[in-house]
Amino acid sequence: EGVMTDAEVKVNGQSAGSIHQGAFYAFKYDITPLLKDGSNLLEVTVSKHSANASINEAERKADFWIFGGIFRPVFLEVLPKQHIEQLAIDAKANGNFKAAVHVKASTASTVSAQLTTANGKPVGAPFTKTLKRGDTAVLIQTVLPNAKQWTPETPSLYYVQLNLLDKGKVIHTTKQRFGFRTVEVKQRDGIYVNGVKVKMKGVNRHSFHPESGRTTSKQISINDVGMMKDMNMNAVRMSHYPPDDHFLDACDSLGLFVMDELAGWHGHYDTKTGSKLLKEMIDHDVNHPSIIIWANGNEGGHNFDLDSLFPTYDIQKRAVVHPWQLFGGIETQHYRQYNYGIGNYNHGREIVMPTEFLHGQFDGGHGAGIEDYWKMMWNDPLSAGGFLWDFQDQAVRRKDLNDSLDTDKHRGADGIVGPYGEKEASYYTIKEVWSPIFVERREIANSFDGMINIENRHHFTNTNQCSFTYSLQSLLDKNKEAVKGNITAPSLKPNEKGTLQIALPLNWKQYDVLYVTALGPDKKEIFTWSFPVTRPVEVVNNLVSVTKNKNTSSQVSLLPLGSGQQDTVYTATANGVTVRINKLNGRLTSVANSKGSIPFTNGPAIQEGATNFKNFTQRFDGDTLVIASTLDRKTSYNTLEWRVYPSGIVKMQVNYFPGEFFTSMVGVNFSFPESQMKGVEYMGNGPYRVWKNRMKGNKFGIWNKTYNNTETGEQWKYPEFKGYHSNLYWVKFKTTTQPFTVYTTNEDLFFRLFTPAWKTDAWHNYEPIFPSGDISFMHAISSIGNKTQGNETTGPMGQKHIFYDYEKDPARALKMVLYFDFR
Length: 823
Prior knowledge:
- Helix 2 packs parallel to helix 3 and helix 6 (367-379) packs parallel to helix 7 (425-433).
- The chain is mostly beta strands.
- The strands form 14 sheets. Strands 41-42-43-44-55-51-50-47-48 form a nine-stranded antiparallel beta sheet, with helices on one face. A six-stranded parallel beta sheet has the order 21-20-19-18-17-25, covered by helices on one side.
């Protein structure tokens, strides 16, 4: 099934045939004349580098791990002298079935056939074909009325059982699995399967496992296809060579469109060699209904002389593409910017289907940018979707280096999942963006009537074949039982819009969050959407007490300003909490409670703006101490107010303007020693970090995250701890000394945890942008680029924020309110 690269085969010291050249193709020899009674010796001599220079160009000078040896199974096949050698099937969506049957026969006279369901039940009438003397191939045909069509959403499979008969006696039987489906490329229109225009929600996939390199197993194939299906993908591209047979079997039975690819990466096979290997690929893979497109090499590894051979060898005449080129009416260019092209690509007249369009090296690409790209792809009639690069981080387990995982630095760290299937944040972003049930944004307000707008983005499935559930949950009151129920599935054909109607209980407003789950016909989760019911200000009102406890006589005290250095610091105490605030700039200089100090200091410092708080004054507002800066629309237009309450709660309000019209991020920073951080518990969207151009995929809830120093694609302890997190309500910082909690009344506030490590690249596209300081609270965060594109070329969500300062009108300033509980 696969040898890298040249294989010389001998049996009992004698050559079994010509040396096979080319790694990813099944080949076989008739060794009958070489066998003897008793033991027989099989020898295979493998040369990693081929004697054929074009094979090395196509296979070994490539941008992926290069191994050597026999890496796929070897079989001994025993057949009667007269037998069926090969079978090529063309089964159309309308039930028309034909098969080219290749036979080795001298006296056999008939080939008979019977179609069966996947579980062996005969369907349709038997059909036969008479052999003429000397025939080596016959075409056998029938029609199955009401045949169930194969699609990724309905992967219906059948078998054909073939019998070779000699004078009415069966002398050889074989069977082959297949599916009924029709594929058609309509120029300047789209790719049609069973008469339906389809869009590829696809990913590139290498045959790979960290323990065994290119050698994989049936279970690995099933696991990989299962994860792709779980991400709501419907397609996979074989990069950059044909896969194991069991992977195609999994795509057939679980349901994925496949682009099968002749090897080639910048270099290509010479015509003589390529013709032989192309035939071997098609002969081996022809009957898999999942394969709907062939690819002739990759990124310049196209031998144009081979294009005409695809329809010659393929009974189904499937379309051929040249990845990275416009060929056959399908534009497949890689890594084009979101707004690329005038008169071509997305602005042209051809079908557009990039075979690589967002590069997932480290944490860039994949989820970052896909929402913008998919909006464009979904709404463009000439778009046939595309394929992400790529599925898995390819890290080899190095037995010689203490079992460490080696990605060859940046070269193998391109996956959505890790070497053992560890799921990055992008996994869940893709799962939501590519959900075949699209849920329209919905704010839950007092007028909410339980109605949620949806769109059916399946290609072949009515929503009445799906099921929907809901759950109202209280996040803060653990004793309050959730309210759960089913939602009647509406009848919506593909591409139709409609609604889900939830039968809300009368007390629905007393809960914190509404979850809505869609399940496919297979009862597996499509996605679960979350809708916050409560708002941050309500949580603060319920959890944060600013008044003193009835059982204490706590009050706020302000130490008198001293001389020298003390003259620049306000020192306030309340209920065991002591905060020191710099009189000149308003920043926290120290925090302590009755148990000791808390090293949360040096803020608020405005990010992407002027920290120009000046002329602080202090006063008491009843029993609350107020320390505030003075507004000056020219020199101190950003203002800061601290309030220290008798309960020991400290409130901060910052009114500020970003410093630039275009800005990557805005917010306030504080300092905290990273070495003292153990973890966080927070209420908001989680558990994964976000970027401006990767906001989807998370769930609203209460999350616990333990500190880690994971660098995406280098270590695989997910979710990463460091980075931006969205929709903050409150966060409790767990430290090596004392915990403290921060609450906000702001909606849509982000919090940032330290600065992750990242790798630079030659083009400086990937490098993410983070604020100064250690812990930040932000109105706006930065996007991220990827290996092949800067962040601003991945779509509108990747671009900078725009803020108007309105001549520093205080009424239009950004307002941030935080409550600190240092007790």
